[in-house]
Sequence to fold (490 residues):
Amino acid sequence: MLYIRKITQSRAFKFAFVTFSLLATLLAILLYWILFVRVTNAGLTFENELRIPPEMKVRVNEDGVKVFDLSVEHGKMEFLSGQIAETLGVNGNYLGPTIRANRGDRVILNVSNYLKEDTTMHWHGMNVPAVMDGTPHQTISPGKMWTAEYEITQESGTMWYHPHTHGKTAVQVYHGLAGLFILDDENSKRIDIPDTYGDDDIPLIIQDRLFNEDGSLNYEIRRNASYGDTILVNGTYDPHVSLEARKIRFRILNGSNARIYWIGFDDEREFQQIATDGGFLDSPVDTTRVRIAPGERVEIVVDFSDGKDVILKSFPEAGLLETYSSWSAATTNGHFDLLEIRPQPASRNSHVIPKRLNRIARLERGSADVERTMAMGGMVINGKSMNMGRIDERIRLGDTEIWKIRNQTGRMHPFHVHLVQFLILDRNGRKPSAQESGWKDTVLVMPEERIDVIMKFDQHADPDVPYMYHCHILEHEDNGMMGQFVVVDE
Ligand code: C2O
Ligand code: CU
Ligand code: CU
Fold:
């Protein structure tokens, strides 16, 4: 005892102890800073005015069908000032115009491929016949035009379009092929919410990108996906937007290949989430954060009537493993400034957002005809890699199905199903949060998580042409984390 006391009281020990504690504290601060604090795109000055994708021109033909023409083409963009990047776009240089249609409309979409390689155009989130779905089974060769024609049968919501080219979805989307497809219905037109596109109803397509020294886009796969250290919103780098100082609706699409965002404001203000992928929630949900994975959409309403400038941000809340992946792949921890909002004097009063937005017809667990397991492993689903010649699942027309989605990996994977919108029954045995209790077509499955979803397949039987389900991390999808199902009428 005496001996120990002597040592602990010796000057050398005290010195070593103090030095060690100091170093440990410094290391802890450094780690904390790297993982949670460091803003990799700090120094944003919000110089550039936010681009708003224009609404796509529509013509109504003699049969009353709304006709849209989409040209998939090469482009050039000045993302970073004075530097030019080679890009891809729809009817333009980067991204594409917003398509808009009503429930009950019949639409024709003429997609012309002006690239030197194959492409396709998929209507993500939309309930359409398999031959019109724009998957790798509807390839458009260079110089050719493909026409999709269908009726809009689903409720209002924010859908989107992007290529689904076999093995090349990731690189084509990365260079700019994506756009919004907004659906309206009687409910969306009746309820009193901001709905003037580009004025108080603002689309935000969020994408992370890597740039080369010369300002060109750098597409690189690291850690099995592409992560960027620079954010583009609607293809705008370093953006700001001037809006009226009242309630504004944002339709947010995570159009990134792999990155997940935890979105909120720098002053931690509360806002209302009003919609999920496939339509309005039953009621608005008050929150300070929305999590959004690639492929997902979220609609929020934010009150700017205090007139203060505020920054829309993404916070580093991915957990240690993902944060480490993001950091090692793109030297960022996911902490980004996204957009500065500069409120201007309002020309009218704010909308009073109704307490009731929708009446979602819940599907009960007991009503399911079939249960299937979807086990996500390393670049496989149920142990299989995508094969265009193989049908993995056959679904009977009219059936209600529960899919038990199981993430058996240590990484996050957003699981997407074509054709239908589903409801989450539970996440690891717990009811979904209010923010996730609406129609979804993509659900983020955390490492080792077990999610049950329920959906009804009541349209578009076709025994020959499959739909897809897949991970919406585009590099995972291209690498085989995808399967095929057909809907059959027996
Ligand atoms: Cu957003 Cu199968 O796609
Ligand atoms: Cu899809
Ligand atoms: Cu994945």
Q: What stands out?
A: The pocket of copper (II) ion (ligand 3) is lined by residues 413, 471, 473, 476, 481 (CB under 6 Å). DSSP finds six helices and 32 strands in the chain.
